[in-house]
Amino acid sequence: MKQRIIYILLLLLITVPSSIAQHREAIPYAHFEQWVTRHITESPILGGNARSLYAIAPDTVINGAVAYRNLGGSPWATSNAYANIIGIKKVSCTVVPENREGGGKCARLDSKLEVVRVLGMVDIEVLISGSIYLGELYEPIRSANNPYGKMTMGIPFTKRPKKLIFDYNLTMSKNGNRIYSTGLSPKKVVQGPDSAEVYILLQHRWEDEDGNVYAHRVGTGRERFTQSTDGWVNGYAIDVHYGDISQESYFRPYMDLLNGKRSYSCMNSKGKIVPVQEVGWGAPNEEVTHMLVMASSGCGTAFVGAEGTTLLVDNFYLEY
Predict the structure, then answer these.
(1) CA-CA distance, 167 to 133, in Å (whole number)?
(2) C-alpha distances out from residue 143 to 67, 88, 264, Å
């Protein structure tokens, strides 16, 4: 009896600290089991094709060329978009739900050339990488000149996770190089392979009296993937590093501060979409006000990617 009590005490000593030290919190809708399906018919000059778009939110169907805003409290936006330029309706779809073997759904992100045919002839080809991110896309898109001008990145958030956990399955393009194609000029070959990417960034943001928004980077977890996987990699973890990481051995240039042309945007207090300029690294213990999470089949540069790369993602958690 005495030995049994000692054994139970040893088990408690081993298991209790572990359970206290770690817990996981799912990001809303990040199991990707629920999707909005949007049915839109493109303009007759483009062929009048019936197209479907998808959004990560409670299951529902929306018929017609209606501008979409996040539904049901979902924090997720995608690279899928409805454009209406001088009355011509066009859609782009690079993110779709896909069934996982064994049950359940995941998000499929594809890098592809979106082809626009005018009167049956190829007129424009645009390279788009499939992406999902915490934020919003404000439709309809009115111009291709500023691809990030309608996107707001990040959601209010104050916690301090240690890791971003997720499942992924990657098939890299067989093309050895990338393509740069905006549709405004002939497509070009960009030397070097593409990479898929997943990141979590934590910021402390503030706004000045003119509506300009600035941020300190408080936490960084960012990784690029260049090798196809042999099926699913479950429970993959990206560590969140706090404070200035620019001198650390694991630092890579793509982890650097986002400012200038690399800035993402937000909606300021005046109702205007403005860049968020990261003006410095935050202290490790600085207050967090916003979180950015993104997964993409490309490395984040607009109109650049490797056609044929597919990234499947599922089950995003924050670990504390």
Answers:
(1) 16
(2) 15, 11, 17
pLDDT band, very low/low/confident/very high, at 13 (cuts 50, 70, 90):
very low
**CATH numbers and ranges of domains, the chain:** 27-319 (2.60.120)
SS (HEC) of 161-187: CCEEEEEEEEECCCCCCEEECCCCCCC
Instruction: Give the CA diameter of the chain.
Output: 86
Name the token pair of 229.
């996987």
Task: Say whether 12 sits in a helix, a strand or coil.
Answer: helix
Report helix, strand and coil shares of the chain as percent, to nearest 5. 10, 50, 45
Look up residue 4 and give its DSSP letter.
H
Burial class, 84, CB count within 10 angstroms (exposed 0-12 / middle 13-18 / buried 19+): middle
d(Cα 29, Cα 37) in Å, to the nearest integer?
A: 15
Q: Quick check: 220 and 303 in contact, CB under 8 A?
A: no
- According to DSSP, the β-strands at 76-78 and 60-63 are unpaired
The percent of residues in the chain predicted with pLDDT above 90, rounded, is 66
pLDDT digits (tens, 9 = 90+) for 225-270: 999 999 999 999 999 999 999 999 999 999 999 999 889 999 999 9
Neighbours of 211 (CB within 10 A): 12
Rg (CA), the chain: 22
Token output for 93: 């779809």
- As beta bridge partners, residue 156 has 290
CB 94 within 8 A of CB 80: yes
Q: Is 116 helix (H, G, I), strand (E, B) or coil?
A: strand
Q: What angle do CA 106, 103, 298 make, to 5 degrees?
A: 20
